[in-house]
Amino acid sequence: MFSKGLKDVVAVQTHIASVDGEIGELRYRGVLVNELIPAHSFEEIAYFIWHGELPTEQNLKYLENELRKGRDLPSHVQTVLDALPMDVSIMDALRTAVSAFCHTHFLTKSMNEQAIILTAAMPVIAARHYRKQQGVAAINPNPQLSHIANYLWMLTGKIPTSIQVEALETYLTLTMEHGLNAATFAARVTISTESDLTAAITSAIGTMKGPLHGGAPSGVIALLEEIGTQEHIKQVVEGKLQRKEKLMGFGHRIYKTEDPRSILLRDKCTSMYGQDAWLDLATVAEKEITTLLEQYKPGRKLYTNVEYYAAAIMRSIDMPPALFTPTFSMARIIGWTAHAIEQLQDNTIFRPQSEYIGNK
User: Which of 21, 66, 86, 258 could pair covalently with 254 via S-S, beta carbons 3.0-4.6 A apart?
Assistant: First the structure.
C-alpha cells in the first residue's frame, strides 16, 4: 500500500522514545519527560537516552570529563573549518566538519565513545564557524563550564548567567529525542547499510538543514518583537486574527493537545518570572493568545508548541537566527546516535519498494 512520505507507516521498533500526540505525552525510555527532565542535567539525560538508566556518580563524572576532552577538535578538523568560506552556513560547516571525523583513530573507538566525541564537538564547531562569520577570533573552551554553559561562553566570551543556562538546558533536554523524525530516520537508514556513525550523523545533519524539518522559530520571535510589551498583546494579536494571519508557535502536526515540551518550558519560564523581560512577555502572552484563539477559532485547540518557548529563550539570550537550527542539532545528536546504535543491534537494511507511475 502506497503512503506518501511513509506517513503512518511503522518502519522501526525502538526502546528509545515514544510520542503520543492524542494525549500529549513524550517519553524517554518509557519515562514521561515531565517526570525526568526537571531534576536532571543535559549530561544526565544524554546518558539516560544512550544507556536506558541514569548515571551513577562515577559514570556521570566520566561522561562530563569525556565531553570536556571532546571539545578539543582534532587538528585536521580545525583545518577543515578554517578552510571553509565565511558564507558557508553553520549547518553546512557542521556537516562538513563532522564528516571529517572518519579517521582511523576515531573509528577504532566504540560507538558509545564516538557518540560522546561527536556530541562534544557539535557546539564547538558551531561556535567557531559563527565567530568566523562575525570576523572575530574563536574562543577556546572553558573546562570549568558545563556542556551548555561552555557553548554560550564560546559564542560570546562571556560567562552566561544561571538563568540563561537553565532556560537553554531545559529546551535542549526536551529536544534530544522525538521519535522517527526525518533526521533520525536518515541516520538509521545510513547506519543500516553498516556504514559508520560519522556517516549516519552527517546524513542527519543534512536532513535537519532543510527548512521543513529544522526550521527556526523566527516567526515566533517576530511575533513577540511586534508585541513588544505586555500592554500591547491583545491589540497586536487581535489585529492578526482579524486579518486571518497565522500565529506562529501555536498548533502542532502531531500533538492534538498541549505539547508536553511546551508545558515544561512554560513552567521553567514561569519559575524565572521577573528575571528576564522576554521570558516574562512570552508567559503572559501565551495566556492571552490562547484565550483569544479560543474566541476566534473555537474548538481548534491551538496550544503552544515547543517552538514558542524556544523562540522566547533564544531571544532572551540574544541567540541569532543563524544559530537556531545548529543549537537544536547539538541536542538532537543524542537521539541520532542512540538510534544509530540501536539500529545495529538488530539490523536489517532499509529497502522499501517504489511504485512506477511513468509511461509504459
Answer: 21
